[in-house]
Design goal:
This protein has about 270 residues and is α/β, with parallel strands linked by helices. The protein is built from 9 helices and 10 strands. The protein has helices at about 20-30, 45-50, 80-90, 110-115, 130-135, 160-165, 185-190, 195-205, 250-265, and strands at about 10-15, 35-40, 70-75, 95-100, 120, 140-150, 175-180, 210-215, 225-230, 235-240. Helix 1 (about 20-30) runs parallel beside helix 9 and helix 7 runs antiparallel to helix 8 (about 195-205).
């Protein structure tokens, strides 16, 4: 994807919930250098109805049919589907924009696949902030990275870690810390909630050294994340409060970060690394 390539990159979207639809609408409205080529969804009839609101006809196909139709795939589906979505694109030297970043830790073969075939995995900033600063600090020495996430009750219900450990949060009346551990452990215990922790760990010192706390807070209406970094180049702390999308486990800014990436990837002026 170079600045001299004027042909539109064809974009496929795998997963057509709140995030996928937001990205589709942005592409339909126009992102220079990109065009929406195809969509895949679990509920195909619902997807077709949503697609009917776009300005031009876009096919709704199975996951297996996406790769020949597109140069880039945006994965915003359940984490278990990541290999079947990304692998065909990476094997053919194409780009996979991955939102289920936590699933990369159990599918590291995808990274090797990208290396061997000239493909690229892109993990967008998503619901976090400061990844530019973390990746810059990682060029030196990072001593410690901690992320503290606080979420409304609805955003954590059903998380595997809570179920496995018999942690009931529905009746709590004050903040409760429900998890403390590494980003790798967090990705397993909260696969729908802590892709941000994995993205942070991949930008910095890795999933086994990045520490995570997860809090359930009945007073919150927004997902909040605070990251604290100590490095030889700088020490910094940053916080963000994300407005949930239609899916309470995911913030609106997740879709916007993908749109932002697409908009600046081929722009004449690109701000931020």
């Amino acid at each position: 994807m170079t600045g001299t390539n004027t042909a539109n990159q064809r974009v496929a979207i795998a997963g057509f919930g709140a995030i996928g639809m937001r990205i589709a609408r942005a592409l339909d409205a126009g992102i220079p250098g990109y065009a929406l080529a195809a969509v895949s969804a679990h509920d195909r009839e619902k997807a077709k109805k949503r697609l009917s609101g776009l300005s031009r006809t876009v096919p709704e196909v199975s996951i297996e049919q996406l790769e020949p139709l597109a140069d880039v795939v945006v994965e915003c589906a359940p984490a278990a589907l990541l290999p079947s979505i990304a692998a065909p694109f990476l094997r053919n030297g194409k780009t996979a924009i991955v939102l289920s970043a936590g699933a990369l830790l159990s599918n590291e073969g995808l990274i090797e696949l990208a290396k061997n075939h000239g493909g690229q995995i892109v993990v967008p900033t998503g619901a976090l902030l400061g990844l530019d600063a973390v990746t810059a600090a990682a060029e030196g020495e990072i001593r410690r990275v901690t992320m503290i996430s606080r979420k409304p009750i609805a955003g954590l219900l059903g998380a595997p870690y809570l179920v496995a450990n018999g942690i009931n949060i529905e009746g709590i009346t004050e903040p409760l810390r429900v998890f403390r551990g590494t980003a790798r452990e967090a990705a397993v215990g909260f696969p729908a909630n802590l892709n941000v922790a994995v993205a942070l760990s991949l930008a910095g010192i890795g999933p086994d050294r990045t520490m995570v706390e997860m809090w359930a807070d009945p007073a919150l209406t927004r997902n909040t994340h605070t990251i604290q970094v100590e490095a030889d180049s700088a020490s910094f702390s940053m916080s963000i409060e994300n407005v949930p999308s239609e899916n309470p486990k995911t913030g609106i800014i997740t879709a916007l970060s993908v749109i932002s990436y697409l908009r600046k990837a081929r722009a004449a002026l690109r701000v931020g690394s």
